Amino acid sequence: MKLVVVLAAGLLLAACGGGEPDIDLAESQTDLGTVINGEILEFEVVVENLGSGELLIEAVTTSCGCTTAEVTPSAIAPGGTGLLEIRYDSGAHGPDEVGQIMRQVFVASNDPDEAEVEFRFSADVIAAQS
Q1: Looking at the predicted structure, is the pLDDT value of residue 10 above 90?
Q2: Domain locations in the chain?
Q3: Which of 73, 64, 116, 124 is nearest to 98 (CA)?
Q4: 93-122 in b/e burial notation, b at 16+ Cβ within 10 A?
Q5: Of 74, 73, 100, 105, which is closest to residue 88 (Cα–Cα)?
Q6: Which CATH number fits domain 20-126: 2.130.10.10, 2.60.40.10, 3.40.50.1010, 1.25.40.10?
Q7: Residue 14, helix vs strand vs coil
Q8: Looking at residue 8, what is its pLDDT?
Q9: Whole-number CA gyration radius for the chain
Q10: C-alpha span between 44 and 84 (Å, rounded)
């Protein structure tokens, strides 16, 4: 009887303690195609928690000031999803900035195996017609 109580208590504590989160992006990159300089593009990427513990988004950073991003919600339950919302301003560097670009978004979390994931996007920025 004592062994059953100890095992039951152990299982209860394990269940309450939770497991580890596991971050996953539905896609790791995308090509936005041709973009006219000055256009602002907004798009989303699904963020999944494939683990058994709560996923906490600790920071979202970008490789360039022309790009902003955030994940909502900042806490994702096991098996749940959130959205990485990205905004790219193709005209942020002025009207003469044209050609192929590649930008990165970095998402830091409490995932013990992958503390940071990266999303990349590319585009071909062309001059606006006068």
Answers
A1: no
A2: 20-126
A3: 124
A4: eeeeebeebebebebbbbbeeeeebebebe
A5: 105
A6: 2.60.40.10
A7: helix
A8: 44
A9: 21
A10: 5
Tell me which residue has tokens 């950073």: 61
**What is the C-alpha to C-alpha distance for residues 83 and 77, in angstroms, rounded to an integer?**
13
Q: What is the pLDDT of residues 55-72, one digit of tens each?
A: 999 999 999 999 999 999
CB 63 within 8 A of CB 43: no
Which pair of tokens denotes residue 55? 């996923």
Centre a 10 Å sphere on the Cβ of residue 77 and count the other Cβ atoms it contains: 13
Are 55 and 25 within 8 A, CB to CB? no
Place of tokens 């709560």: 54
What does pTM read for this prediction?
0.85
Predicted confidence (pLDDT) at residue 3 exceeds the cutoff of 70 = no
Give 90-108 pLDDT, tens digit per residue. 999 999 999 999 999 999 9
